[in-house]
Design goal:
The protein has 215 residues and is of the alpha+beta class. The protein has four helices and eight strands; from the N terminus they run αβββαααβββββ. The strands form two sheets. Strands 3, 4, 5, 6, 7 and 8 form a six-stranded mixed sheet that branches.
Length: 215
């Protein structure tokens, strides 16, 4: 309990520090390792062909790119792996119209609420997502008492679209229009088995003061 209280107390400071730095980072592509998730994909994802990220399989016309280098330390790498698994589980849930439920282990609090809202937007089998979403300048702002962590990432969804599954025609942006580009801040918690999951989520559109570094 002490570790969780400490993480909560320090989270606000971590957000401010990380926002100031979000615009700086390497463009080196980081390819997630197979240890991103030990859970099997519960439902195959639709689409022609497939690409694998950890234990997740995505259609060939959907790209989820993590462009930041891995942290040098093992603790930081584990935190980033937890964040990336959350991201992959989010889009796996969307692409399967909620049939893939790995996100239930990777998202808690309002982060789980965000996943459920996106799933609701794609409840109909007549719509899905296509294109590329990029997670850039991803960094660990801090790790607190070994049980809590704060992560920042600039998300670019400008090439990610909602499409009609029958015609392939673009219906609109994959996310709400104000979230074409945004700063994402997540709090993570460490489980007893050493894995990390997202416990809280804050999103700042790039058009806002808080998210300006992700424009």
């Amino acid at each position: 309990m002490r570790g969780r209280r400490g993480a909560a107390a320090l989270l606000a400071a971590g957000i401010l520090t990380g926002v100031a730095a979000c615009g700086n980072g390497s463009a080196t592509v980081f390819r997630p390792a197979g240890s991103l998730s030990s859970a099997p994909v519960q439902s195959p994802l639709p689409g022609s062909g497939a690409q694998h990220l950890g234990s997740f399989r995505f259609p060939s016309d959907v790209s989820i790119d993590f462009t930041s280098p891995a942290p040098s330390g093992a603790a930081g790498r584990a935190v980033i792996a937890g964040y990336q698994t959350y991201v992959l589980s989010l889009w796996a849930a969307v692409l399967t119209h909620g049939k893939n439920t790995v996100y239930l282990r990777q998202a808690g609090g309002n982060a789980a609420g965000f996943v459920r809202r996106e799933m609701a937007r794609y409840r109909s089998p007549g719509v899905t997502v296509r294109g590329t979403i990029s997670y850039n300048d991803t960094r660990v702002v801090g790790i607190y008492f070994g049980t809590g962590a704060d992560v920042l990432s600039c998300v670019d969804a400008s090439a990610f679209h909602q499409v009609n599954t029958q015609t392939g025609a673009t219906v609109g942006p994959a996310l709400p229009a104000r979230l074409t580009r945004y700063l994402e801040n997540v709090a993570e918690g460490r489980a007893s088995n050493g894995t990390w999951s997202v416990t809280r989520l804050a999103i700042y559109p790039a058009s806002s003061t808080q998210g300006a570094m992700c424009r």
